[in-house]
Amino acid sequence: MKSSLFFLLSVTLCVGAFATVPLTGCGGGNGTTAPSPAAAPGSVDGTGKATLTILWTPRQEETSRLIPLATRSLRVTVRTGNGDVFGEAVIVRPAGTNESSLTFEDLPTETLRIVVTAHPQEDGTGTPQAQAEAFVTVELGENAPIRVRLQSTIARIEVVADKSQIKVGETANIAVSAKNDAGELVMITPDTQEWTVSEEATRSGTAQITGVLVGRARLEVRETESGKSGATEILVGRSGEYFLREIVAPENFEACRPTGLTNDGYVVGTCTPSHGSFWRSFAWESRTGEMIALPQTPDRFVFLASGVNESRQIVGDAMNGFGYLLENENKFTQLQQLPNANDTVLGINNRGDIFGTVSDYPRTKQIGLWKTDGSGKILSANYSLTHEPFAINDQGLIVGQANNVAFAWHTDERTPTRLAAPLAQQGYPLAYDVNDAGKIVGRYIPPQSGDQPMLRSLVTWESPGSVARPYADRTLIYKPVRMNNREEIIGEKAEYSKPVLWKNGVVKEISSLVPTDWNITEATCINDRGQIAGTAERNGKKTMFLLTPQGGNGDLKVGVR
């Protein structure tokens, strides 16, 4: 006769590194021994033991999982050499422990086949999520270890959207499912899903994406325990010229201001608290909407972020008078304090040049230059002038002013270049930013004549040695703030402090690009994609924003970049 029996199991987890599926559950005990089965057909006199050890989650040093995260029980079947079922046990995922072990007593001394399947229900039912089998040879009076490696049963991942087309700002719901070779659903959890979304969309919520750019958005989902992936595509159409996203300030903070913006939409900035006098810095990931509070310096001073480069190296100052470089949002390098009293760090370029000012207030300011290892030097050496740098490009060209005259400095040279006024006129040209092509943007203040008002005209220089040329209507008073490599400029109408955008020869108030319940108060950053970050008021409350050009041509154009 054939004996069949369900073993109570023992729990002592011991599972090696392996990739499979998710699991949760409760129940189970430690070190339990299964009752002895009746002798099976074909067994020989004398018996032995075999022990199966289980590690429900991987050890810290291991990178993969043996048992799916969604598994609530394991079904273990012992078969004799002729295929008969000798015994069976259901092992429930234990609560409060990571290890389980099951010892089979009084086994026949022969080679047995062990089959293990992982299930989503505690009673060992439901479509198997992973499975494995192994052979163990039982010897008289010995305890043989049973070693199995579960393999995921997932054959494919299916990703389905409830809409094939959306417009920028609209959302699509996403359903992700796993199936085995027979087409049966295999239970998985969101914790084992890695989502990769192309730049046309962003993930919003656990099972949604939102269109942000005109084009064909591709979503790929990888189930980490099986290694299987699935994908879908959605056409994203144009709903307007720009897509507006609110950057929500950290809790209990307001008056936040972006100070840096990378080409992949990573924003850094500073905030003042609603109550009290302590500041803080933040980083905001536009792809996920995650708001990250940047840490204090190692000596517990508040860090004020002033700039960031494409490697996400963040620079800024601390209340102790030192400048700092912050990498990976957690590693600080203190910048060398230069001979004069106070250092102010202003920015960093993509080759790692850090610039700022060194001041012996109230006398003069000089230009400070640091490397990412913390070492620094004073770049300017004319102590009769007050130097105010405003920007640096990736070639190491710094622009700014000295005693109200526009200058350009190179990080490898101590002698600056004075920037010429328009058509050799007298007046005060001021430089504010420089792009990687060496083009400089600034403004020109001509001498006041009689009762005429002092007009300020936006000007550009093709290079430090060229003559400035007017960029916009001279009758308007403009102040540029930043220029990107596409020669798009953000700034303000100085008499009204209205943030404006110069793009393709056209000047627009930025508030005209957003819904009417938004009032843009300052545009502080623009990247090479044309994204703009800054501050705003919405329904009487201060907030921050990120504007992203949608692309395409016309409100109904779909799938065109």
Characterise the protein shown here.
This protein is an all-beta fold. Among the domains are: 6-152, Immunoglobulin-like (Sandwich); 156-239, Immunoglobulin-like, CATH 2.60.40.1080. 0% of the residues lie in helices and 48% in strands. The strands form 11 sheets. A 6-stranded mixed beta sheet has the order 1-5-4-7-8-10, with no helix packed on it. Strands 11, 13, 14, 16 and 17 form a 5-stranded antiparallel beta sheet that branches. A 4-stranded mixed beta sheet has the order 2-6-3-9, with no helix packed on it. A hairpin with a 5-residue loop joins strand 41 and strand 42. It starts with 5 loop residues before the first strand and ends in a 12-residue tail after the last strand. The model is unreliable at 1-44, 59-64, 449-454 and 553-561 (pLDDT under 50).
Condensed summary:
This protein is mostly beta strands and 561 residues long. The chain is elongated. The chain contains no helices and 47 strands.
